[in-house]
Sequence to fold (145 residues):
Amino acid sequence: MLLCLALTAALTLYAQSTAAAGALDWERGWLVDLERTSWFSFHTALWLECLGSSAMLMPGIGAGVIIASFTGHGFRALMVLASYLGAKALIFTGWTIWSRARPDFIADGLAVPPSLHSFPSGHTLQTFTVYGVLVWFWARSSSSR
Fold:
């Protein structure tokens, strides 16, 4: 976990320095173009984003912990919980170093919760980590491919 925290800090500092040097100036134009030409609506994008929100992950985490506990897999129960808490620690490490604001020009600012930052992406990290651990445990427990 310490290695992951150090890597997150290093990558965040690197991204911050490249942004300060203008290396990310292309983002605004690309995001505006994506919004204009996207094959799915802003409403659909919000629903997809929900899959990585803490509110949507909590039932999966709870179910994973309960199922693992009742089937005699206490270590797996702890790993499901630790994956979520570890992801949160990585996210807050990045946000503490660089409080980069989310873009407020998409959908007239509707996608900008006031307390959340844009780097690292909390939704992406939480989704990948928690669902990844749950799928990995499910795959290991399954007798078929």
Q: What stands out?
A: The mean pLDDT is 83. The CA atoms of residues 88 and 126 lie 7 Å apart.
